[in-house]
């Protein structure tokens, strides 16, 4: 919806994702991530003894810049998966640029303000998610509550099965299914850049007793050389600066996420 990507192309992404997760285990294991590497197919990395694991299979791939791709983890089956993912990445880059400019204009800033901070070498990581039916949805979570460590996240949700929920005022609210829509979720780094005007929402994914669910999330992360801080035009005597200048936020975020903690607290002044 208003993103410029056709319904037919989004259906292709959706179908290829379902086909990959329906493959025999030995075929998926050809893309298995290696110890200490986040890219590839598998479950959560185990970072601590008391870590809460998510009820999920995932394929995690860095898709941009192209020289950061680890193509040994890109599926060769189903046929066309890699080529379609490359095309999707290029389309997402256009959506991302338009979105950053629109966000800046909405705050009466120069339109490249956020885009310049995001950087030309910003990283895009795509995570293909498969949530199998769960016999105890009252006890098991699909993805534990968290806020994204990205600047923005582009989410292609399941077309038929609900599961994504957002926390507001202490209550969880379902995200409705809207056909052919890419849901754009603001991450912690956009909250920092906007000096807290835009918020990075806490969200989770619940499980379903009878139905499987898939989604594709693309995390748009500022370049590792970029300093992320509140835009100058959003800091004043009336609205003091709320956040420190940070770099490599995504690395810190992954550790906090596995511990069930909010990374944004580390950035507060």
From TrEMBL:
Superkingdom as given in the UniProt entry: Eukaryota
InterPro entries, alphabetized: DIOX_N, IPNS-like_FE2OG_OXY, Oxoglu/Fe-dep_dioxygenase_dom, Plant_2OG-oxidoreductases
Coiled-coil region: none
UniProt keyword list: Dioxygenase, Iron, Metal-binding, Oxidoreductase
This protein's record includes keyword Oxidoreductase: yes
Domain Fe2OG dioxygenase: residue ranges: 119-222
Keyword Metal-binding set for record: yes
Transmembrane segments: none
One term of GO molecular function: metal ion binding
Family to which this protein belongs: Belongs to the iron/ascorbate-dependent oxidoreductase family.
Protein name in the entry: Oxoglutarate/iron-dependent dioxygenase
Organism of this sequence: Arabidopsis suecica
